[in-house]
Amino acid sequence: MFTLETGSGFWNPLIWVLIIFIAFLLFYGIRGFGKSIYKKDTEQTKAFLSGNKEPAPEDMHVKASNLYWGFTTSMKSLYTGLRKMHTGNLSDYLLWFIIVLAVLFVVIGVI
Amino acid sequence: MTFLDTLLQQSPALIIAIPLFAAFLMPLVSRVHSKLRNIFAVVMLSITGCFIGLLATDVLAHGPRIYIFGGKDLTLPLVRILFEVDAISIFMAIITIMLAIIAVIYSWSFMKEQDGLDKYYTLFLLVVTSALGMELTGDIFNFFVFLEISCIASCALIAFWIYEGEALEAAFKYIVISSVGALFVLFAIGIFYAQYNALNIATLANALQYTFLDKIALIILIVVLGMKAGLAPMHMWLPDAYGRAPPSVILIIMSATLASFYGVLRVVFSLYGNVLTTSIRFNFPLHVIIGWVLIALAIVSILIGVIMALIQSDFMRLIGYTAVAEVGYMFLAIGTTIAALGTSYATVALHGGILHVLNDAIDIGLLFLIAGAIYYVTKKRSLDDLGGLARNMKFTTVFFLIGLLAVAGMPPLNGFTSKFLIYESVFQLNPILSIIAILCSILILAVFIKVLYAAFLGPELPELKDVKEAPRSMLLAMGCFAALAIIIGLFPNLFLDTLVKPAADALLNHAQYITTIVGGI
Predict the structure, then answer these.
(1) What chain A residue is nearest to B412 in terms of C-alpha separation?
(2) CA nearest to B139, candidates B66, B46, B76, B75
(3) Which of residues 377 through 396 in chain B touch A, CB cutoff 8 A?
(4) Does B335 fall in a domain?
(5) Is B189 contained in some domain?
(6) What are phi and psi of B99, to 5 degrees?
(7) Is residue B190 part of a domain?
(8) Per-residue pLDDT tens for B178-230?
(9) Closest-CA distance of chain A to residue B488, Å
């Protein structure tokens, strides 16, 4: 009931859950060996920015548009092409429909 | 004949009649009391769900069931509207009713402050009727009629927030795309009727000669229904519509979209099932060509969907693009099944594809409800304006984490189960396709990690300090999806053995679909 057979492999989610549970137990066990030296609201918790003043927390929040900046910049040419494709123009939507229809006509209908 | 037998016999018609009747009664009920309207909607959908459950037990135990409108027996010429319900039809109907009931529960709070809710619920129930009709009918013209009803009602629902100009624009795009598509479907139906003097799918499948005109009809039906399902590069209407419609509406439009995907399955496996192994030019069997065409479109969908989702800052549009990628996974599985027809891994791919329809409905549905909950409490759509919501929206955050892991195909949630079946079977057809699918799944994880960080983590933003948790009915709707994602993930065989495998068998055993009708005349 719990093992999913695919013919070439299998998957048992309960074994996975058990492994994760054991991993968490180990994690907490190892954590217990540590020393509790953390003191809240002291100099210890402040960020050191080479002597500069720490900005307000809300100003340090990285916005969604800036996340994966490196990835999107390195893939600039791909994104330029895809943005050109997604014009938002209804005529272009219909054009893509006609293009796919024509390609399939050649592949299935003519060949 | 017992009362239960009579109900069972009439259930295919009642499954359509109850939401249709409720839709036209809704303006009247709304006049009595708004709470009565909400209760009426959920009760009517629950009754429909009970009939679907009743019919499912019968169909899964005894095979396809037919219902002839206005007649008792099958007689020639077969001009009556006829419903033929098999395991795949009932599987899709279960998904539709599940989405509809959860969407109505969500609407109780989400739409509470809105005007025109009598029209909202009327249109909502009409979309439910049309999706169920598309899934249960055995008549191709009837399929077209339900497709049209779905287009018109969905268009009005997408434009529900009419004061937002973009909602109106999205609705306009949707109706143009849908109408053009529907006209092409009508043209294909005309081709069948002109050649075979029949509109019944089983009768047509039995008579199909695979003439040049049949080729044209096949191409039209695959392309139009693929476009309606959100297949790239014809997907562009989908992020527009999903990005602007209320989230409860998106759930029900999703059911209509999945009904179009079901249309592709019905056309390829049932209608053209007899001619799939026919050799066309260069000794290529037809199923290999169709399979690889679907695989190519699926890979384009997965890549475009994921890559475009990564750069979206509007939460709903981001999920819309992810939905395009998920549709790609379904078509990848179906394409593999068709291309490798007859092999053992083709069946595994079909199991994965069919299970992924259910998982897509749950995972993408959950994410849209979460996006709606965030919009409800913050009135913000852009992820750039959000941050630190996990502090005040603890339940929503937990549901998002479940949705994130599920949609990205992370074990042990439901998304992994179907993707695992897809990866394993696609690998046997072509390892490169499987690698692309796995890499894109990792990218989906990256897309939603971005959302997790941008919206839920990070410092508390001053303008979002007073944000509260979403109302109970919205949490209940999200909780239902989250629970299903966990249950399917932990006990995949429960769903595979009872629903998915019979549905796959119904598609592969197209002779049974044909003989149920043709053998009865």
Answers:
(1) A13
(2) B66
(3) 382-384, 386-388
(4) yes
(5) no
(6) -60, -40
(7) no
(8) 999 999 999 999 999 999 988 989 999 999 988 899 999 999 999 999 999 99
(9) 10
**In this complex, do B233 and A100 lie within 8 Å of one another by their Cβ atoms?**
yes
Distance CA B19, CA B140 (A): 21
Reading the block at residue B248, the tokens are: 């409860």
Taking an 8 Å cut-off on Cβ atoms, the answer to whether A60 and B307 are in contact is: no
Q: Mean pLDDT across the stretch B323-345?
A: 94
Task: Name the residue facing A13 among B215, B226, B411 (closest C-beta).
Answer: B411
C-alpha–C-alpha distance, residues B268 and B275, integer Å = 10
DSSP strand pairing (A4-5 vs A10-11)? antiparallel
Closest CA to B271 of B198, B370, B184: B198
Other Cβ atoms less than 10 A from the Cβ of B213: the count is 15
Amino acid B75: pLDDT: 65
Alpha carbon distance A83, B255 (integer Å): 28
B349: nearest CA in chain A?
A: A6
Q: For residue B153, how many other CB atoms are within 10 A of its CB?
A: 24
ipTM value: 0.92
Taking all residues of chain B, what is their mean pLDDT, rounded to a whole number?
A: 92
Residue B66 lies in a domain: no
A97–B216 CB contact, under 8 Å? no
The torsion defined by the Cα of B154, B479, B405 and B228, in degrees rounded to 10, comes to: -10
Q: Do B454 and A64 touch (CB under 8 A)?
A: yes
The pLDDT of residue B521: 54
Percent of chain B with pLDDT over 90: 75
B128: amino acid identity, one letter: V
User: Angle, to 10 degrees, between the axis of helix B344-378 and the axis of helix B414-429?
Assistant: 140
Cβ-Cβ contacts under 8 Å, B412 against chain A: 13, 16-17
Q: How many structural domains comprise chain B?
A: 1
* Residue A109: closest C-alpha in chain B: B215
Q: Is the pLDDT of residue B284 over 90?
A: no
Residue B335's domain comprises 277-490
- The answer to whether residue A49 neighbours chain B at the CB level (below 8 Å) is no
Classify strands B65-68 and A4-5 as parallel, antiparallel or unpaired.
unpaired
Query: In one letter, which amino acid is B36?
Result: L
> Least CB-CB distance to A61: which of B180, B212, B387?
B387
